[in-house]
Design a protein that fits this description.
Helicase, Ruva Protein, domain 3, Rossmann fold, homodimer, precorrin-2 dehydrogenase (chains A, B), 8 helices, about 200 residues
């Protein structure tokens, strides 16, 4: 398996199934701005509410293969493993498919993810132990705490400013490395002074 | 950005450009069994050798948009940022595109990844600081050492055996949680005894 981060903004995602697992995946996808369609005769409250608010489209019937035709990502999350596998088998070669009931049947796994603003750490085990993936994610959440969110904004701002200066590669890299020191994450004053020195 | 792990086995990847960066990405993709085509008038030695050995296809000319037509993933890695962006602009909505020279122009980022057998930890920063992503990856490499490779094989073996027993959910989860204790990673004897108890 090959780890990538994908921009989901505007991408069509078809979710087969309207249970708790589907709803959990949908929440993350809506955050990323995906264009989500849920196809399921029943749906949990969250999904019904998102549909009412126009945040997603809910088609209240059993999924059909043609529903997935132009999907970028298909999430097969019904409680029927055979149906989920059938959706995976009928996907086009270039479509992304996650099969909740049996990830080996699809071509996409969802890692356990830790997000701190722009910092994203994703942990997966190729299905060997989803519980270990979650445990490692939780351990990393202590190590990489909330302070990273603001720190990443600082790093981003610095990067744009440093790039705009037209410096030689060595000088540029020196600055980009300097700001990796923990003191910049720990001290707002340090960050402010450094930004002033760049402006 | 949304982190996923993708099965690249047999997937068509078109790489525009034949330099060092292209070669580094290609190495990982070949490991994952992707069907790689490099299009570039020139290519570094590694790419030439892979082409000679039949591990990839090298087309020795400037890339054309039609080369990308049925690609699952396009890696725009020429030294010409305008050409790279043009490839991204002309990609179909559902194609995955990484633009090496300017990742914001594509829809895929490559995280800094740490692999220990089946364990995969991917770190990305939405481009805010690739250097921080690498630093965190290197810190994690010390924390999650080589011992995880064998440990993940053990966890996988246990999972298959535990699943095959037809236990109640609570009993199954108890066993799956028990093996997350560090002593199983640290002691081969502990692992052997546990596997014996399952068989």
């Amino acid at each position: 398996m090959y780890p990538i981060s994908v921009r989901m903004q505007g991408k069509k995602v078809v979710v087969a199934g309207g249970g708790k697992v589907a709803s959990f995946k949908v929440a993350l996808l809506l955050e990323e701005g995906a264009d989500v369609t849920v196809v399921s005769p029943e749906a949990v409250n969250e999904i019904r509410q998102w549909a009412e608010k126009g945040k997603l489209k809910w088609i209240s019937r059993q999924i059909e293969i043609s529903d997935c035709e132009d999907a970028f990502l298909i999430i097969a999350a019904t409680d029927n493993p055979e149906l989920n596998e059938k959706l995976a088998q009928n996907a086009k070669p270039n479509q992304l498919v996650n099969v909740i009931t049996n990830p080996e049947k699809g071509n996409v796994h969802f890692p356990a993810a830790l997000k701190r603003g722009k910092l994203l750490i994703a942990v997966s085990t190729e299905g060997a132990s989803p519980k270990l993936a979650k445990k490692i994610r939780n351990d990393l959440a202590k190590l990489y705490d909330d302070s990273y969110e603001e720190y990443l904004e600082f790093l981003n701002e610095c990067r744009v400013l440093i790039k705009s200066k037209g410096l030689e590669k060595a000088a540029k890299n020196k600055l980009l490395l300097e700001i990796l020191q923990d003191e910049f994450r720990e001290s707002e004053e340090k960050r402010r002074k450094f930004l002033e020195s760049l402006n």
